[in-house]
Design brief:
Helix content of chain A: 55-70%
Number of helices of chain A: 8
Radius of gyration of chain B: 18 Å
Helix content of chain B: 55-70%
Number of domains of chain B: 1
Largest interface: A-B, 36 and 46 residues
Structural class of chain B: mainly alpha
Largest sheet of chain B: none
Strand content of chain B: under 5%
Number of strands of chain A: 0
Shape of chain A: rod-shaped
CATH superfamily of chain B: RNA polymerase sigma factor, region 2, helix turn helix motif
CATH architecture of chain B: Orthogonal Bundle
Oligomer: heterodimer
Strand content of chain A: under 5%
Order of helices and strands of chain B: HHHHHHHHH
Distance between the termini of chain B: 46 Å
Chain lengths: 145, 186
């Protein structure tokens, strides 16, 4: 058998290995490999890499953090934003104030801000304030709706 | 020239960095390299079954680590390094399991493999490469079985080009010596 030395110092037969001509591959192997690598998520194969899966694996901590943050926000606001229809929606209230603010007398507003008029308009302690709000709830609703 | 051939590796890397083009980028990298990585691995682990196993692990590693690829070397040589590391890991694992019944490469009868079309001298040559010390084998296989340049291999193996060439030269000498010793009478 010819074991003549190749010009690179290697036997000529080494070139036949390098070119791949001494190996064969089952027919349709590459097509089948293609589907195994990219489409076998549903088949539950162990070692098939799937970009979509990798993408989800990469971003799931972010998604979990966002979900957690949303839960915390909801938890903190659950006393404010309620399904009870008697409670005023904060966004609507804000919009109402923005729309109506120019209707108020500037001096009255300035006085309220400094606390001069507050004691005259609303009761002082929290308990009395709650009672006041409940008594005048209908008035508030009339203003808002 | 096909659409895929027009896109450079650097552009493919950019594609996988954006969510919208990520999956297409992966797909194109796979399309470009899956065959040549298979043939590269086949020459190292010899049988189709072995190459198939290692190739799947290689693609998994590539997809998992592409985000960490810092482009300090070419994409191609980075992928070849992963493939070769996977092959070496596979061979080490096989050697460890040899006592529990698995087959070591040195005991593989390639002539009995239906997908091997070579002769005895080809088998001796493959065994000659397999008997090299691991680092020398890595250098030889990366240089001879891929078309990577010395400079690229030196970069991914963190060696000087001079050291790499010297090691390759010694590997060639050992292979020719092994072949001479084992091919008498063939």
């Amino acid at each position: 058998m010819n074991t003549g030395i190749h010009h690179k110092g290697l036997p000529e037969a080494m070139e036949e290995i390098r070119s791949g001509q001494v190996f064969e591959v089952p027919s349709g192997y590459f097509e089948e490999l293609d589907s195994r690598i990219f489409n076998s998520q549903t088949q539950g194969k162990r070692s098939t890499a799937r970009p979509a899966f990798i993408f989800l694996r990469k971003y799931w901590p972010v998604a979990a953090s966002v979900a957690l943050l949303m839960m915390i926000v909801w938890w903190m606001n659950r006393d404010v934003i309620s399904t009870d229809s008697n409670v005023v929606n904060l966004n609507e209230l804000h919009d109402f104030i923005q729309e109506q603010i120019m209707e108020y007398d500037i001096e009255t507003l300035a006085g309220m801000a400094s606390g001069e008029e507050t004691s005259n308009l609303f009761p002082g302690d929290t308990e009395t304030l709650e009672t006041y709000i409940l008594e005048h709830l209908e008035d508030f609703e009339t203003i808002l709706y | 020239m096909s659409k895929l051939e027009k896109v450079s590796d650097k552009e493919l890397i950019r594609m996988i960095r954006h969510d919208r083009t990520r999956n297409t980028g992966f797909r194109m990298i796979y399309e470009r390299y899956h065959r040549e990585l298979y043939w590269f691995l086949r020459k190292i682990v010899w049988t189709h079954e072995n190459a198939d196993d290692v190739l799947q692990e290689t693609w998994m590693k590539i997809f998992n680590h592409l985000d960490d690829f810092r482009e300090e070397s070419a994409l191609k040589s980075w992928m070849y390094r992963i493939a070769h590391n996977e092959a070496l890991q596979f061979l080490r694992k096989n050697r460890r399991q040899v006592t529990s019944g698995s087959q070591d490469l040195s005991s593989v009868d390639l002539q009995a493999d239906p997908w091997f079309k070579g002769n005895k001298i080809h088998e001796i040559l493959l065994k000659a490469v397999a008997q090299l010390p691991e680092r020398q084998r890595q250098i030889f296989e990366l240089k001879y079985f891929s078309d990577l340049k010395y400079s690229e291999i030196a970069r991914i193996l963190d060696l000087t080009e001079g050291a790499l060439k010297a090691s390759y030269h010694h590997a060639v000498q050992k292979i020719t010596h092994f072949v001479k010793e084992n091919s008498e009478g063939i």
